[in-house]
Amino acid sequence: METLQNTHVKLLAFDFTSLTPSSSQPKSAVYRRGTLLVSRVETLGIVTSRDHKPDRFLQFTIDDGTGCIPCVLWLNQLTSPYHSRRSPPDVRLIAESAINFATLIQIGVSARVRGKVTVYRGIATML
Amino acid sequence: MEEESSVKLISVSDLLHRLHPLTGASLFTPSHSVRRPPSYKDAPQPSNPQNPNNLKILKPLNYPTVLVGTLNLTFPSSSCSNSSCLKFCDHSAAVCCDILDLDLRVIGQRIRIVAWNFLPLKPHGGFLEIIRWSLDQSEESYVSKFNAFYLNSVIPTREETIVPRHLIYGLLESVSPVSNVPCTANKTGTKNVKGFLAEITTCECKLCISRDKVMLLHDNPTEQSNSHKFSKSTILYFCGSASIWYPVISRLVGSILLISGMKKKMVFLGEGKSLMMYVTTEKAIFHLPVSNSKRAMNINRRNTTRIREKGLCRAYTGTITGVYMQGMVIELDHKVLLLLTDHQLMMPHSLRVGAIVTVRNFHLEDPKFGWEKVKVFGSCYKTSIRVNLFSPIESGCHQALQSRSLLRKFIESLAFSAGLWVLLAVSSFKKKFAGVLSEMEILGLKHMEGLVQKYSSSCLPLSVFGFRHGVVTEYCQHELCGCGKEIDYNPPKLVVPISNLISHCEDTFIKKLNANSDINNYQNSSLVCGGKSHDQPIRSILKSEDMNIVLLGTLKISERSGRLQLVDATGSIDIVIPDLPTVWSNNDIYEINDFSIVMEGFPRQLQGLELVNNDHPFSCKNIFNHFQSSRRKQITIYIYCYMRDTKSRNHILHPSPSLDKYNELENGSFHLLYLLHKFPLQQKLAGGDVVTNNLSVYVEAIVFPWNLLLHKGERDSVFQVKMLNGTVVNMQEDCSYKRKLLLELKSDSFWKYQLLRIGGYYLIKHGDKDLVCTSKDFGVVNSESHLWSVVFFSGQKSTDECEICPDVYVNLSDDDHLSFLKAKHSITTIEPNETIFKGLFLNSCLSPRTGGVIVNMPEGNLLSVQGLVVAVHTSTHHHHYHRIFPGSVCIHVLVDQNLVKIDSSLSEHSYPVGFGPGVKAKFHRVLLTTQGDVLKMTPASFIEINSQIPIDQQLTSNDTPVMAVDTTPSSALISEMIHFSNHKKTRIHCRVVAFYVLVMEKKNDSSDVKFPLAGVIMDDGSSMCCCWTDNERVMTCLLGLPWKRSRTSLMKILDEHDGLIVINNHGCLSDNSCIDVKVSVPVKESDEQFLKSLLLQASSTNTWDVVGSMMSLEELDERLRRLDMVMLPLHNIWISQVSHMNTLNEARNIFQQLMIYTKERNKRKAET
Q1: Contact A93/B1093, CB-based, under 8 Å?
Q2: With contacts defined as CB-CB under 8 Å, which chain B residues touch A40?
Q3: β-strands B285-287, B148-150: how paired?
Q4: In sequence order, what DSSP letters do the residues of B687-749 get, joined into one string?
Q5: What is the pLDDT of residues B55-65, one digit of tens each?
Q6: In this complex, is the C-beta atom of B1019 within 8 Å of any C-beta atom belonging to chain A?
Q7: Partners of B2 in beta bridges
Q8: Distance (Å, rounded) from C-alpha B437 to C-alpha B454?
Q9: Which of A36, B621, B750, B792 is spaced 20 to 30 A from B938 at the CA atom?
Q10: CB A93 to CB B1022 under 8 A?
Q11: Please, which residues have CB within 8 angstroms of residue B607's CB and are 6 or more apart in sequence?
Q12: What distance in Å separates residue A8's CA from the closest CA in chain B?
């Protein structure tokens, strides 16, 4: 079985939506499509929906013509315990970068998005 | 043949009076009943579309006709000297003729011609092609009464009445041309005997060697000819009055011949050589075959067992598709060139375009011409041509030239391929110099060499010249004379007319683009400026060494554009000669052997272009024929060459006046000028189609306060550069006084303007009324005043100092040189603060210094900028345009690694030839605007090209400008690259995931950063890899460092920490959000944040187009060990170039590849 775990595999939306969590791999973040194991993907499409929760997250959808991929951009770096072990200036940098991205994501723009695959509320989602 | 009563009898004189080509037949139907060559339909159409005359079918008479007359071998008052002609005469007149399926019985008989072609011959003759005939009824009974002819007359006889002796029966292999041989047999002295030779192979079978060969006469050829084996070669000599049989015998090559009454004689060929041959006597009889002529003559080829002579080909049948150079070159089937250069070879008039002919006994040669593949049939004295079918096309007859010029003799003495090359050169010269030189000057006369011959003999090696021995010797001792011997030599370069050259360049450019699958590939190179994408021109270069051609022509300044052009009678082409001496003359003919041809165009404009001609502009046909092509405006073409590679051919034609010009320099007093500025052609005048004679251009110069005395020196013979000694003579008491002088050059002195270079020193002869003395601050340079470019030196001359070769080097004494240097220094540092040029422009401030920190220059000042032109694009809102300089353009120049934009709205002709991406140029007097680093060209600004980099394609944003069309690395995925060998350059499209390591160092000599090593994690969706580089430009690009602010900040950090910083990333390398960077030295927190943000920003930018190759682990391992780092479990790629990827173009490419794939798949499907 070929594994492309760290590579941002370019997937079309209809391929993305057919991803299933891999049972053989204990790590939850590994998904399979046929014989291919992926954990990170890249997609290119038009932003068709946008739900912004300041300081929490930005939820948006990318439509590439074959389907829609739900995406989440976390904006909670400054408050999340996940980032608390890092030095505050570093976290600020990352947060700034995320806010910067969030402003770019507007409905109708063409965006290239890279991220980790995860299941969020039962749907494959890109983080 | 039954004829209707309406058939009109037409007389020969009637035909002769008509003066135009005609065809006629006795059976007339609207569909034209004249017999046509069966293969005519398949025959390739006459190939020159420019010459529709070739297509004209012979005009038929609109009523049925018949010609009645006698067919004869000779005609006493014949004006035609062609010995291969038969004659046809009726009561009114006689005319040369040719006949298909010659039946010997008709000779001397009255025949009715029922299908014919008539072609007028100059001056007042004509040529009749007899297609179909019948014997006149009154003659038929008589014809059956004879079956032989006496050879020395044309008297028919019946063989029963004679006793045949010395019967010769055999296959006629070849016939020589008719020639005169001095004969000493006669007691009265030497007398010329006319005659021709024939080679016959006889049989040595029982019957043939028996004494009683009379049986042969009754031999039934259809039954017994197969038993003969023709193997023994015998030479027959038809001399004296028997030579009138030449038209008949020459038409029988390849047939069986039966002759009796010949006498065996030993013939001396000279140089102690002799040969036994059969010579005709008074009793010699030519026997006609018993049965139907055609059947009897077609013998079984298998019976000819004689071994062919080496290099001599037996026969080739084909359609004539072209007759060139007065019949000396005949093109067959569009693929073979038959050379008939020998004046002794008399070819029938019926060798016309469209005729089907059989060539026998020729030499096949395959000349290794570098410009075209061509097959040559060389003719010798054994060659014969028979017309099988006459041409139905109204194509002219060729007439052999009576006079034999020196050039003709020259061509005859050459090997076939060399002869063809000379003929091509003759054709080119005639086309190129028509109107410039007289035909006599080009071709020469009977006793005078012309330009072509002089040129050709200087190009051809001695080995291609051969000594000619005369018809008899060369015929009899064919191989000994070296006829058709293959000579191994490198053929000289092709002399091409400029029209053909332009067409070739355009075709090559278009083909090259098409071959690169699609033009969209080039849109990768489109440039984004001001938020818009702009097309960049595509450039392609042709090198002279790949083309095997030579350019000949004169140099002229175009009256339309004011540019230097290479000109011949067929066209003109822009030319850039950086080292053109100022003494060149309009009349010199230059020979340019080493050059580059640059072709440029815009992808979108080139997309629709298709090849106009399917055939090659350098093909022999297009060199011989008139060639015309319409120039495509979308492609810019110019030649780039250096004069030191060019030798002027002028001295061959006329005593070169250019030599005398140097006399002015021999001695005397000179003014010394420093050229401050050249003003461009004024916009309102330049570029118009109207030729304006009152155009003027202006240059600004500074006159030195002292004069220069020149003494006799030496002349450099190669470059015609003088070495002189000089002394400085003070003219003014105040040596610091320098006068500024504005010089006007009228249109007749434009070439002087072209040659002047800003910052150059020039000499003007001092006289009573010279330009400098008579004018205070404004003068007009007339055609007499010469400006000599000069370079000074003291002591030992170093020619490396200057790029451009000056007219004269002047050796000054140490003191003089010192004062010159002082004056030079004071000039280059002066800052003239006054109005320039009749109030044309603002207050000027000249700063000849180049580079530097230009952004800090005060507002509104003029300055000079020198740098590499990276891009030129339109600054109007039009997306694309078909001219390089459509009006308002934006020029991107790289000045000391800073990208500077220059706005320009100059006219197209204000840009020097060759200006575009890739050249190093100096922009004089550009205005610095308030917009920071944006500069504006003004009407007084002048662009000077410092060096042209003749490269294919345009620049990318990195340091490697050479990106040839053919060598562009192919794209691949990272996962595929691991299978590639090391060092194979590949293009990948990827994004930066994270930085692994970054070493930054301060440059010793300048205030800039260098990157000794950087490792960047890249991902293209197929795999990840670590890309390594030490290339500053690559890193500048990846880090987004062109911005000055970040660069300055980096410098500051480096300054504080001994000039070296190493940044390691110990975090997760597949996610840039897990940044965990360690800096090698303790830096301020703000600095650390700056560095981190730099890396973070670099990892979130767009997709890169990266060129790199797989690298070996060893070379990397050691570098990393020094940094105390480990190698990552990734593939390592060494990158050399990086540029932004154009997603749109990438998508287009993918789409087109898919289209091609689909097309191929459908094709395969259709096939199966």
Answers
A1: yes
A2: 1070
A3: antiparallel
A4: T-SS--TT-EEEEEEEEEEEEEEEEEEEEETTTTEEEEEEEEEE-SS-TT--EEEEEEEEGGG
A5: 688 888 888 89
A6: yes
A7: none
A8: 15
A9: B750
A10: no
A11: B519
A12: 5
Length reported for chain B = 1168
Q: Looking at the DSSP assignment, which residues form a beta bridge with residue B534?
A: B527
Distance, first Cα to last Cα, chain B: 56
How much is the pLDDT for B1001?
82
The tens digit of pLDDT for each residue in B123-156 reads 768 889 999 888 877 766 776 667 788 887 777 7
Contacts of B1069 in chain A (CB under 8 A): 6
pTM score: 0.68
Residue with tokens 């822009």: B574
CA distance B384 to B312: 12
Higher pLDDT, B779 or B76: B779
Query: What is each CA distance from B741 to A97, B616, B758, B778, B1116, in whole angstroms?
Result: 62, 53, 14, 6, 63
Six-digit token string for A28: 């939850």
* Residue B1021 C-alpha, separation from nearest chain A C-alpha, in angstroms: 4
Nearest residue on chain B to A94, alpha-carbon basis: B1073
Most confident of A28-37, B810-819, B982-991: B982-991
Using DSSP's 3-state secondary structure scheme, residue B1092 falls into helix
**Cβ contacts of residue B302 below 8 Å, gap of 6+?**
none
**Domain A2-126 classified CATH 2.40.50.140?**
yes
Q: What is the pLDDT averaged over residues B1159-1166? A: 88
| Calpha distance B925→B943 (Å, rounded) | 9
> Can you say whether the dihedral through the CA atoms of A32, A33, A38, A43 is positive or negative?
negative
Q: How far apart are the first and last CA of chain A?
A: 25
- Kindly state the tokens that stand for B1057: 């920490």
Residue type at B841 in one-letter notation: F
Structure ipTM: 0.89
Contact B848, B828 (CB under 8 A): yes
Distance CA B403, CA B124 (A): 19
pLDDT of residue B1031: 76
* Token pair listed for A94: 């990352």
Token pair of B480 as six digits? 């000994």
| CA distances (Å), origin B394, targets B44, B149, B325, B350, B444 | 16, 36, 18, 11, 32
Packing angle of the helix pair B1085-1099, A88-104 (nearest 10 deg): 40
Residue A67 region, left (φ>0) first, then alpha (ψ -120 to 50), else beta? left
**Alpha-carbon span B863 to B851, nearest angstrom:** 10
Query: For residue B556, what are the CA distances in angstroms to B548, B553, B654, B768?
Result: 25, 10, 18, 32
CA distance B850 to B759: 13
Q: What's the rounded Cα separation, in Å, for the pair B1131 and B1129? A: 7
- The set of residues, in sequence order, having a beta carbon less than 8 Å from that of B183 and lying 6+ positions away, is B190, B191, B192, B193
Pairing verdict, β B571-576 and B564-568: antiparallel
Q: Which among B1024, B1069, B1089 has CB closest to A89?
A: B1089
Instruction: Quote the CA–CA distance of A114 and B1019 in Å, as a whole number.
Output: 11
SS3 state at B1146: helix
Q: Is the pLDDT of residue A32 over 50?
A: yes
Query: What's the rounded Cα separation, in Å, for the pair B697 and B690?
Result: 17
Structure confidence by residue, pLDDT tens digits, B1100-1144: 767 788 888 888 777 777 777 777 777 788 888 888 888 777 777
Please give the Cα distance from B469 to B484 (Å, whole number): 14
In angstroms, the CA B29 to CA A69 distance is 81
